[in-house]
Amino acid sequence: MSLNLLSFAGGVAEGISDRKSELKKELRDNKKRQRDWLATYGNKALNETKQKQESVQSALDDLKARGLDTPDAIQLLQKHGVGSVLELSKYVKEYEAANNTTVDSDLMNKLWTAADDFTTTETTFEAAVAKVFGTSAGAATAPVIQEAEDRNFFEQLKYNMGDRYDDELEDFLTDASEGIGGKSIRELRAMSVSSPSMLGTEGSAVFDRSQLRGNEPTAGEARLWKNTTNIIVREALKNLSPADRQAVEMRESTSDSGFSVRDTDDIFFDLADPDGVYFEAFSEATRKVHEQNPFSNNRAATGAYGGQDALDSILNSESAATIAQREKEEQLQEDLEAANYTEANKPSELTSVDEVQEYFDNNPDANHVILNDELISRDSDEGATLPPPTEGIPTRPVPRYTGGEKTRPLQKPLNRRAIEDWDDQYGGKYNPDATPIIVEPRETMPETFDETKFDTPAKIRTERGRITNGIANWNRQYKKTHDPVTGKPLSSGSQ
User: Fold this and answer.
1) Are 168 and 224 within one domain?
2) Is 418 a member of any domain?
3) pLDDT of residue 387 exceeding 60
4) CA of 154: how far to CAs of 6, 11, 12, 159, 322, in Å?
């Protein structure tokens, strides 16, 4: 080896030695700075992150305890972030405290509905929270150190001049034993500057907070219901006879007329009496108004009806009149088919008994007509098979007034007492002309149901509910006036 080469090698060696000394000092200084940071901020970063994670995990546990399945809770966290989890937990606790109750799974799943197609690798809240916070424990990977004999001269120079110390610093930063609480310095530093995903991958969740409303209505709900009450009362009064409408709407007073209009709220609660004679008219008005402008979510409304169940029973049931009319139409169709009538040769539809007799007289080949949705047949030479005339029932007295005519809207007739006596004895059972008011007989609950027609318990329950509602509606409207078996008016003294 020449002297120049030896001199060069000696210089290189001296340079390497100086560089190694610098790197060692730099490494020592860097480690000291990291340890100083750890002593000052390490515990703080660890504790704050731990508290945040525990808070989120506790919220998830609370939601699960109230019926939110674990996969759905994890979905809420990952898709909609920490903020949505804490928000839902807050809403639930506030509702429970205000209403002295506990949210169950049915209510929980109404508040927020999870997607069916969501998948995740996390199966526990701990793992899911750690992932969102970016603190998932990963296996430390030791740096790959190339053996000295496998390196060429220039690689050895590069390793000696820096890489070895970079590797050593990385090992130091990622070594959990150098950190706190099982976390390395690098992990703790990441905790101190990072924050969990507050919005998740799809932004904040949308919750149906209407499900968490208490029982007390807002001022807006009260105002809206006040207006709706007026409409319902007005519609219900339209369904009553003039005499009944006056009886409900007016009260005696010291005014010149002797009457004054009652307060709408008082009228409403009289009409709403389930055992009252006006309940069917009230129910019809309720259904009509609700169909035009739904109010079942108004807490002032549900309170006025005695609760959501009571209101739902009105909204979801058919009136006795509707049921009777539907069954009457179905029976007519069956009778037409049995008599081989089609739409093309359907019998004439008439409107009165006199028309029926006249039609049969003028059409000797006709065997049937339709009257009031009933198939009426020619009965040999005796004419139409119609109900016999009423015997022994007087007609309702015609009101008589001073001077011969009514001059004031609320003027009482001279024979008011006779009219009231007739109404008490025959009202609701007979028309003013003494013809009987015949209604459909009251339906009865069968002991068993045809399994071929109702093949599931749910269908049987639905049919049983329909019959029960029909019976209740019939009783409210006709129990005091009609025989449940025949549908004919009750005789005097049988009420």
Assistant:
1) no
2) no
3) no
4) 17, 15, 12, 9, 100
